[in-house]
Amino acid sequence: MSTQWTPEQQDAISARGGPLLVSAAAGSGKTAVLVERMAGLILNEDAPIDADRLLVVTFTKAAASEMRDRIDRRLSQELRSTPESTFLQRQKILLSRAHIGTVDSFCSELVREHFSQLGVPADFRIADPGEMEVLRAQTFSHVLDSFYEANDADFLELLDCFSAGRDDRPLVHMVQVLYDFVRSHPFPQRWLREKAAMYLADAPDETPWGRAVRIYAEEALHYCAQTTKQTLNLLQEDATLSEKCGSVFVQDLAALVEVQQALPQADWNTACELLSTISFGRMASVRGYKEDSLKIAADANRKEVKAAVQQLQKLFGYSAQECAEDFARLAPMVEKLFAIVEKFGRELDAAKAEKKLADFGDLEHWALHLLVAETPEGWRRTQTAVETAQRYDEILIDEYQDTNELQDLLFRAVSREEKNLFMVGDVKQSIYGFRQAEAGLFLARRNASVEYDRKNPQYPACITLGKNFRSRAGVTETINFLFRQLMSEGAGGLDYTDRDALYCGAQYPDSNTPDAELDILERQTEEGDTEMAELECRRIAESVLDFLQNGSVFDKGRERGGRFSDVCILLRSANQYAPLYARLLGALGIPAWADPGGGFFGTLEVRTILSFLRTIDNPLQDIPLLAVLVSPVYGFTPDELANLRIADRKHPLYIAVQKAAQSGNDRCKEFLNDLRDYRTQAAAMPANRFIDFLLQNSGYQDLVLAMDNGETRLANLHLLLEYARKYEAAGWGGLSGFIRFVDRLQEEGGDLGAAASGRETADVVRIMSIHRSKGLEFPVVILAGCGRRFHRDVGDVRLHPKLGLGVKLRDETTGCRYTTLPREAAALEQERDEMSEELRVLYVALTRAKEKLLMLCSVSNAEAKLASLAAKLEPEERLPAFLVRRASSTADWLMLCALRHPDAGRLRQVACAEHLRVLPCSEKCTFQIIRSKASAETAPEETEQPQAAAVLPDEALLAQLKRETGFIYPYAQLGRVRAKTAASDVAAAPFEKKYAAQSRPAFLGKGGLTSAERGTALHSYMQYADYAKAASDPAAELSRLQQEAFLTKEQAAAVNLDAVQKFFASPLATRILKSPHVLREYRFTIEVPAAHLDAALPPEMAREPIVVQGAVDCAFEENGALVLLDYKTDRDADESKLLERYGAQLQLYREALTQCTGLPVKECCLYAFAAGRTICAAL
């Protein structure tokens, strides 16, 4: 059945002739449209485009893979209709060569194609994040040392501005942030030059900072005046309040309006004087109105107005002359900071080049260098760009709202004057500002484009896809109701109008209940994340259980009952709170899976093993040692550890453990024995092999499987193994180095990705971050944690793409630090951008819901909060951008909007705001206030109760329980014997620890072979050699084996030919050469009684069959019987020791030969190459 496209979708599919931007709302089918457009380009009858002449760029590998699969299925569908079409067959082949991938993959291909032109090594690799963190830290340490040695005054003042006399970590952090920040710009050095030049201004009004502060002041004064006017109108509702308090608000309003009108024409100094004149008189107290909602709202409004004015007075607290002096002081420091950034970049590039490493930023800049040349006016295309552009007939960019300036320039450079660009995205879902994504690029293109007219197309054009095929009408209308009020050009980047609204296009059966719900949960305290989580989890549990019992979902065209997996809980900060919610929900009987996100080093199992490794590396560290002792591996109790410390308070804990062991403490003895063994192994193994050894020998990997989410915990331990393997592969070595690597990474605030849980796909409630949920959809979405305050940066240093850098300065007289105009202006714009992004994050969260949307807002005093918010609402539909940006949490936004919903009469009643203008909404929504229960109830008065009759146990049930719980497995002793084992393991088991450290030391290079590897080489020679030829010329036979690849060059060099020659000169070799039948490397599998492997087994278990596998080095027939020969390369030539070690193995070989050949074994011999003699064992 063919897809029925909407007119707008069809336009996006078929429009040709110029650059096209598709603004695709959530759930509007943008991926399907993109795929169909690609298919249309390929299958166009008039001018088809080969599949490999399309450049399709998206931002995740998963999205690229899905897109390739979709277009492949689309071509396959066409091919089924016309299987004889060679054209379609060719396109299917070309599709495999088409570039459908991420920006990074496109850049990587381009760079590897032109590596010589760039001067980069052809075999460069992308560094792991952890590896990159350490390299950056090492490089910056070297850079900083060079500036310290220069003792430059500007550098020292810069250091003072950042560090406040403590340490240089803030400067280190700032340089690295600034380095990453400028790399998102096409020309980082130009950006640094332009921002440094801003500090050469003589007056604040000449600077972008002054203009930004003035714009903010005008907005703030307008809002303050409107809020004061609104409060005056509210006071009219109560004659007493109007009489007592009205005059104060009238005075406030007059002062605000006067300054508001005069400010635009005033110069900087006059503006400072005007704002300083605003003062607020004392408001009279009104008896009996302490708990009155109207009085509370009026007080809250005035408090907010005062705070806003005080902020303005702070912003304009410096004269133009003082600002100019600050600029003059800041200029050399900023120059120095930018010089540090540039030097750091150069040295980091050199360090990466030395190791043939690159990061994704390098790929983008190298690609840009190939395509673009910087000019004084801007940029121009290179010849490489012109040639590359000829490869692609159309460039299709998905998720365009998430691009940055550098990526956008890449697309423009590789296009044909931008005429073949097709961009699709949704600026309302641009939520990656922390990765330097620039939503303004999308908005600028949209504003520069005309609405597409299919009858008279003009370009650049924009097509809006507003029909939502994901959500029920109640969900889409609730989202529209919220964002028509919240999102504006000043808060969110665009005015949310009919053009951007969602229009329900999904078909669902009618529902008896509203599709959206807002619950206000009243908590006891203002702060306390745990209390909020507990309240919300109780409400979530109630909601989920009700959904399972009474709800249903529409799935694949039919209605079915609800499942846990239909529900997704979205959190703004999942890394911090998701595990808490999962644990609380689990306690309430709701199975939940929490998105692990990052936090690898924070997981219990990784922390424990890292403590093990740190203790093994240096046992004198008390904290790691304590962590090991209390871990499940050793299980020391707090009392036992306290006794250890009491016995020796002065020395490290390790010394106390040693003393306890010497005093007869068996547990301490066991620990010290294990530690001694581990330290021995660690000195002889690479980090990854040792960690594997530790996990197996300590039993910790078995222990974690018994914990909650055991499989995920085990996967994290395996990840640690993989990280250690990569560390070793990068050229580093040893456990100590790996521990230093991890410590340095943690010191720099870095982390590694944790393992994903397999439970995510099980029937569980999922808990994830809003960012991770982008692109996904769920039948039921619960948005939790809305009452948590927004994170606002209060640091001394501020950074903004347009306003550059702002820092505090130290007063030369008092030594106190004070803020500066650049810092305050950058902070204002940064906050504006952050609040706009928070709005877009909220939009993404709400648009994930298909059928049900539940929003949870936890507040400490519902009545006061609602009354305070209601007092800020004006008659206009759209909320003032200033008010939206000053909200303290998502809950403020949701409740502000909810107060004007037709179904929120109860909220308006509680807020004493029945007068509020009610805005239209065509769909129902549920609003309720859920109050917390009292923490304790008064206990009833004690009364004498009649003694209850004794309840006798059910004897039959009791007997059954005793019988079942007392069951002892009758074959438990057999657990000491493996059901399947190797003959060589039987011989090696008693000596395993003794000889384990003979493996390759961590410091040994690849050029040498260990003793075990040399022994293997000699065994291989004896296995593959022609004994007759080897007896006459062992060297020639060795050369043949190497040429025919039976031995490597290294193995051949390790074969001791003197020992070989001595063997073939022995009487034993003469007997072998005369034998009519010689077996070499004879492999076998037999069954033997368990008693052969464990003589201590009781008689009833001794005959249990055990499978033994192995390979006999050599056996030869002599006089109707076999002679068994096993080659040994041990250095120890002592006859008795060799027989002790290998006697059991020889007996197993003897039995195997007898069972498999039917011939008796008359002799069992060892040939010791080190001693050059034959050793025979007694039969």
Automatic annotation (TrEMBL):
GO CC, one annotated term: cytosol
Domain (UvrD-like helicase C-terminal) ranges: 491-775
UniProt xrefs under Pfam families: PDDEXK_1, UvrD-helicase, UvrD_C
The species this protein was found in: Caproicibacterium amylolyticum
Gene that this sequence comes from: addA
UniProt: ATP binding residues: A24, A25, A26, G27, S28, G29, K30, T31
Protein name: DNA 3'-5' helicase
GO molecular function, one term: exonuclease activity
Domain UvrD-like helicase ATP-binding per the UniProt entry, residue ranges: 3-472
Organism superkingdom: Bacteria
GO biological process, one term: recombinational repair
Sorted UniProt keywords: ATP-binding, Coiled coil, DNA damage, DNA repair, DNA-binding, Exonuclease, Helicase, Hydrolase, Isomerase, Nuclease, Nucleotide-binding
Reactions catalysed according to its record: Couples ATP hydrolysis with the unwinding of duplex DNA by translocating in the 3'-5' direction; ATP + H2O = ADP + phosphate + H(+)
Entry EC number(s): 5.6.2.4
Coiled coil feature spans: 818-845
